[in-house]
Recover the amino acids of this structure.
């Protein structure tokens, strides 16, 4: 039996997929409002997501620049 807090715990892997997906969309020219994306997240989750989002944006920019 899982404890409720463990059942709803967020892992860093959850944010990798989301952050990468949104970074790809942004790199394709889609307007994204990170405040809207992170609006329901608690502070820890918001920081984790934004760190990953920024990292993926930089990686995508570097990949485009070297291509």
């Amino acid at each position: 039996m899982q404890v409720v807090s463990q059942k709803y715990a967020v892992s860093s892997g959850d944010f990798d997929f989301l952050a990468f997906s949104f970074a790809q969309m942004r790199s394709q020219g889609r307007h994204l409002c990170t405040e809207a994306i992170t609006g329901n997240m608690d502070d820890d989750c918001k920081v984790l997501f934004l760190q990953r989002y920024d990292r993926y944006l930089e990686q995508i920019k570097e990949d485009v620049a070297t291509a």
